[in-house]
## 1
Amino acid sequence: MASKPKITLTKDVYERLWKLLELVPEDTITNQLEEELERAKIVTPAKLPDDVVTMHSQVTFTVQSTGKTFTYTLVYPTELDNTENKLSILSPIGSAIIGLKQGQEIDWPISKTQRTTVKVDAVSRAD
């Protein structure tokens, strides 16, 4: 398996995600997200590049195994609603793309028996 790409998070997102992990049952996804947090570079909001996926970013990504491209806004689980354009940070893909820059890709498990590579094609952030 290739080494994972560098990821960058703001301190407030980093801390909020740790608090979220304390509140939810432990499973494969939460363990993977915890590993991502442990290796993240932490910066101030002003130093977070515009092309880095953070919470509430609108992200276009391609799942390499299927060749399908999707666009979602990355949200906390409590922000999910009936709209189809939101992706929870606690979903396999949501936990994979947090902190990645546009153009980066990551090899990521999407189930106990399946892995895929996810590539971040575009990132836009709400101000």
## 2
Amino acid sequence: MQKGWAPAHAAGAQGIRALRRSFFLALCLTAAVATAQTPEPTLARRDAAAWLGKIHRAAQRENYVGTLIYQRGSVMHASRIQHFSDLVHNEYERLETLDGKPREVLRQNDIVHSLIPEAKLVVVERQDAKDRFPALLATNKGDVLDLYEMRRLSPERVAGMECEVFSLVPHDGARYAVRLWAEKHSGLLMRAQTIGEGGKVLEQVAFSQIEIGVPSEKQKILGAIKSAANWQRYEINYQPANIAEEGWLITVPIKGFQKIREVRRPLGDLRSAQGSGREQVFEVLQVVYSDGLTGLSVFIEPVSEQRVRREGVASLGATQVVVRKVADFWITVVGEVPAATVKQFAAAVEYRAPKPR
């Protein structure tokens, strides 16, 4: 009986395996046909603008607590975020690193307190939070949709949340494509990816866990800011600048990028700013450009013996860096854009020594 049963059992098992293979192949073929027959629909401009606006507002007005995973190239780290908004849209935010040395960033509207516990140092500065996940850079003129085509993809789940998925495809090669996952009801951004050539994901940030609509705990954030009042304090002050008056000319080489800020600001090792190492903090001119979705900065600093620099290019994930020397100055261009775009901006920087007044 055993001998008679074994071949039949083996034949049955082979049949089941063959059936599974056929079923899997059928699924793959069905998916391929569906993909081939269903191109990504382009959103009407009005609908696209409405979704971008909804995503932007949700980041500012929703109360949420979650864990963020950020990946740039091969580097990955996690953070815990808490965000609360009141009835008049004041914002309170706490961001805590979960990897490496403990770091904490506390924000009340546009005033940011960065805590460095091992140095008992708090760095205070005014920042525009529109370009930090889960917010988006925003323009008032809908310029983004002059430069990108917004397409709706199939819905997906992220961190347990049902999401609408969109891709923003640039009209030229001067910027990267972007993929967005927005929570279906609130519009809060759950995941964002920067896409390079061949669909490669260069950089992404996403919630791995989140709660939306939680009770506000803004008093805890205000209390944490107050608790750091006795630490060493370093305030970063941005002074308005006019680079043209200092002999600089930057002719924007690529359509769609607009100058949104030019300032004189400190850079360097701020942990030593209160001690004998103050020379490690130096001032630079910074000019910020944006196309409404992504941005880049041009930094201008005098050549100095304290800062050894050299010309060259570097990249990490979606971020590209170009350093070149112009007269007695170092020009550094940093942006989450293709290398060719950063190089064009670097090449567009000209200097003519201003006449003595």
## 3
Amino acid sequence: MIKHIKETTEYLQSKGFNKPEIGIILGTGLGQLIDDVTITKEISYNHIPSFPTATVEFHKGKLIYGKLEGKTVVVMQGRFHLYEGYTLQDITYPVRIMKELGIKTLLVSNASGAINSNFKKGELMLIEDHINLQGSSPLAFKGVEHLGERFVDMSQPYDTELNSKFETIANTNNIKLHKGVYASVVGPQLETRAEYRMLKTIGADAVGMSTVPEIIVANHLNLKVAAVSVLTDECDPDNLKPVSVEEIIAMANKAEPQLAKLFRELIKNL
């Protein structure tokens, strides 16, 4: 992996991806933040050596470099998932590349289902903690100790200073921002009624199919990290109605202006 990381990093540097300060991962239906970026360079994932390729039709699959609120950023427009057939090492490879390019802070977004009955679709949730239900770890491979500490402490995986700033920005701008625990599952199927009950019992406030692997690797690399979920559907097992991916994406798009505002204001104040 070290050889591949070096090759990928050198390729991107040769294309002008020089010393970004902040990395951003945009999740399902959350690509509009790109409109706020003054883009200097953009490269499709399938042109980057050793980079995975997005296979989900609603993920754009581009790495973008430019300026946002005066800061140099590198943005993943589209991410990777276990349900696409990738390994956890594939999924988190871009985080390692962004770190090698120079980022110190990683901001992550996702679309997720609301488990907490006090949360409603279209609202946002600041992730305070998570539950990994994906069956493994992106650090569970031979030689991981050459890339960082194998036994990473996860007592505070989300940066408290960044989270506090997000809360202040939300209050100032009248944005409803819940706080809660995010559970990450494999997917791609949505959950059954029994699974939603189980998730609520173990303490999850929202559920999705991403984010946790990237957070684990960000902590492995000593990056400051924060993540916000857009709640796209309500997962009440006693009143569960069928939901389509198209509906989930539509709700993510509707809620995205508030998410973009949070990200812009945070980046401005970093």
